[in-house]
Design goal:
Length: 175
């Protein structure tokens, strides 16, 4: 079965790694047809194992190899397609749209945090198919109140986010 592992915290805040090295770690851990998309930690691969086992195996392999506490979220090709196909916002070149991959229920935690944060004009959030989507003006992602919440240490093992265009690239790579 084809999967994508979405790694959290790759190539930010001092956790730097080459995707070729990450792909090798996945291969050494028994994954097949391994390739990366972008430098933000999106690894497409094949395996006969289930998602929970893959998460455990790959987090340990990444942690051991790179000497850091690895967090990643594994989604099947079908699940990854849901992220791309469920976007609730109209395409607009003035905005970024992010989807959040994480543990079950994290979408509700994120919505609660979003509702507590002050929002910029046209900044929106919606949950569709248990996926949290966030629209924010280009150039305002890290400056927004909600954007600052995303870096909380207490949430680091619960989710990662990707620009919605990344899901399109991942799906194309998956075939």
């Amino acid at each position: 079965m084809k999967y994508c592992a979405f790694l959290r915290g790759v190539n930010v805040k001092g956790t730097n790694m080459k995707m070729a090295d990450v792909c090798q770690v996945f291969k050494d851990a028994g994954m097949n047809d391994v390739s990366s998309i972008l430098a933000s930690g999106n690894i497409v691969f094949s395996s006969d194992k289930n998602e929970n086992d893959l998460k455990t195996i790959l987090e340990k392999a990444m942690s051991d190899h790179f000497s850091y506490e690895a967090f990643l979220f594994v989604k099947s090709q079908e699940e990854t397609a849901v992220f791309w196909n469920s976007v609730p916002f109209e395409k607009n070149d003035d905005f970024h749209v992010y989807a959040f991959v994480g543990i079950p229920g994290v979408e509700n935690i994120l919505m609660e945090e979003f509702q507590k944060a002050s929002q910029a004009e046209n900044e929106k959030a919606e949950i569709v198919n248990d996926i949290f989507y966030w629209q924010v003006s280009k150039g305002n992602t890290l400056d927004s109140t909600f954007g600052k919440v995303l870096g909380k240490k207490s949430l680091k093992d619960q989710f990662t986010s990707r620009n919605i265009n990344t899901f399109e690239k991942v799906l194309k790579k998956m075939g």
